[in-house]
Amino acid sequence: MSTDFTIKDSGARKEFAGGMVRDTEEGKIDYTSCLYGPMFERWMAHTTKGRDKYPDVDGKPNWTLGIGDPEVEARAIRSFMRHMMAYLRGAVDEDHAAAMFFNINVIEACKQHRADKALIERGADPDVFSESLKARVAEETEEIREDALRARASLERMRRSTTTAPQPPFPPNVYTV
């Protein structure tokens, strides 16, 4: 990874008890909020079962190998619609809500691929674009890791502070990074 980057900074500061100073979290995405409620675990169970049925290829999830193929996007839209109709009818033969999440993710990945491809076709230098994309992913990955660590610490404080508080609907090791 290139060392030629700038650390984004809002200019606002949060000082911690030990003296550490960091940029505030204002306006930043809290990726950990998707872990509350049942859907994250159900979606991941769905993708895990899918991986068992359609194994990864060279470490890449099988479903990602079709991104960019209009037929894959069209199929994901049809699959989403079938699962949505089953969900609305109250069918319980499989987790239709998790299947809808999966298909929406495929559809959105296809849309993002088209947008990225359009940038390159309009003259964006693929090497620069690629480095920019890598930097953005690295930055977001670090933010996710930091959010996960904060959420884990918060959960631990909640658990220690009361024994009557309801436990979160996911195992404590969800935040292992």
Specify Rg, calculated over alpha carbons. 20 Å
Report the end-to-end length measured between terminal Cα atoms: 21 Å
The rough form would be described as globular
Low-confidence stretches: none
Oligomer: single chain
- Structurally, the number of domains stands at 2
Integer average pLDDT: 82
How would you characterize the largest beta sheet? 2 strands, antiparallel
Number of DSSP-assigned strands: 2
**Structural class by sheet pairing and helices:** mainly alpha
Proportion in β-strands: under 5%
Please provide the ordered H/E string of secondary-structure elements.
EEHHHH
Helix share of residues?
40-55%
Secondary-structure topology with pairs:
Layout: E1 13-15, E2 21-23, H1 39-53, H2 70-89, H3 96-121, H4 126-161
Antiparallel strand pairs: 1-2
Helix pairs in contact: 1-3, 2-3
Quickly describe the structure:
The protein is mainly alpha-helical.
How does this model look, in words?
The protein has 177 residues and is mainly α. It has two domains: 91 residues; 37 residues. Helix content is 55%, strand content 3%. It has four helices and two strands; from the N terminus they run E-E-H-H-H-H. A two-stranded antiparallel ribbon has the order 1-2. A hairpin with a 5-residue loop joins strand 1 and strand 2. The longest helix is centred in the last third of the chain and has 36 residues. The chain is globular. It starts with 12 loop residues before the first strand and ends in a 16-residue tail after the last helix. The model has no long low-confidence stretch (mean pLDDT 82).
